[in-house]
Amino acid sequence: xxxxxxxxxxxxxxxxxxVRQVTRRFGAFTALEGVSLDVAQGEFVCLLGPxxxxxxxxxxxxxxxxxxxxxxxxxxxxxISSLPPGERDYGIVFQSYAxxxxxxxxxxxxxxxxxxxGSRARERVxxxxxxxxxxxxxxxxxxxxxxxxxxxxxxARALAPAPSLxxxxxxxxxxxxxxREHLRIELRRLQRKLNVTTVMVTHDQDEAMAMAxxxxxxxxxxxxxxxxxxxxxxxxxxxxxxxFVGQANWLPLSRSAEGMPMLAGKALSIxxxxxxxxxxxxxxxxxxxxxxxxxxxxxxxxxHLARVVEHIYLGSRTRLTLAIDGLPDxxxxxxxxxHALRADVGDSKLWxxxxxxxxRVYA
Length: 363
Description:
The structure is a single chain. The chain is α+β, with helices and mostly antiparallel strands. It contains eight helices and 21 strands. It has a six-stranded mixed β-sheet with strand order 6-7-8-3-9-10, with helices on both faces. Strands 16-20-17-18-19 form a five-stranded antiparallel β-sheet, with no helix packed on it. α2 (105-111) packs parallel to α4 (147-159) and α3 (118-131) crosses α4 (147-159). The radius of gyration is 25 Å and the shape is elongated.
């Protein structure tokens, strides 16, 4: 009964979870507008975005805790759009963990097993607690556990009935940074071991980057971009994604008479979307801090003279704020390994270069 029926993740197979054109409105407010998303069998997908973007509403609709106004949801080949939560075959872990304070750890985990009782239930509880590293904690109460341990109990309870889908609603946001980082690794290891299809809501981009196979970045009730962490970071599809994920530099661009992009009066050499449609606004150049090279050679593309405004030592790396000649009001942040930093970095000016493959143009 408890043996999962998970299969290896195959990218060319029919998706296990398919969300199609889901819309949800609360009066005049549109929480979700025509959202579609596919999740493959065994895949870990993060819904990432700021507060109010619709990510939790989408998770609740998948769980049947919220009703969509339009659209459909298919899981495991079944249309579950109108099914009650108890018939959707998922486990869920909430931000608050929702453990019963008057029940022991074992009783909390067993609660997820429904009508299963006796030795079968005890065996499953022991198996789940061993899986999450809490063997021997059966008789303890939630108040006797740390936040990280409570999270593990909630996860064991969600996984106890071997659901085909695991839903996580910011399950680590209440933990301190060190515990959160450790549990990210443990949760990801556990998810891979079980090969359980997982959808997690988070506003923490580091969490999404560290855990997800793919990330769906949301804003204002829509999915702006879906892709691997590397794709989302290196090739953001929209200005919102570029600014929300990672640290962004934005520099004003102009166009030559021939339509070529210009930065601070110099022609810009770029491998990215230099011809992007910027009809709705002035063009802006986007680049990450690591795309900035210091002490650039004379023949380096996109070479500019810049003044060091500030430099901050961060241990293994140093963050510099620069001002390019001709762009005094557009600060440029660069990050370089501290051991590679020259002693003369505090001098008034130095030559920098912007990597061609690290540049994109947005309105």
